[in-house]
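Fold this sequence, please.
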Amino acid sequence: NNNIAPPSWEALQSTPCLTNRPSPPIYHDTLPESVESSLPVLYRDKDCICEACESVWLALEVKNVDYVTVLVDKNNASGDDDEQILMLPRISWPSTTDDDDDSNKNDHDTTTTTTTTTT
């Protein structure tokens, strides 16, 4: 019999963390202007029900990437931000020294979208 039981919550809580990295800073709805991040900024849904957002979030965690999180309320969209809210998850990458060249300027945002194929 090869039944494998999942660990109990008590066993998981007593397991030491595999990284010494602190939890990423989390902001709500917008990144404050006072925050100058040299880290990627992950914009994801506040309710944690978007599968694509969860996939990107978990990938950053598994790869041990330092990043900042902005939780966005997809149900409370209003005004000019509607289009940005619908494009979640989104990662805003920090600027690099090569960005001083005007021909290479962009907003450094990457939107992850889910595609489906039918056969």
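The chain has three helices and five strands. Residues 102-107, 113-119 have pLDDT under 50 and may be disordered.
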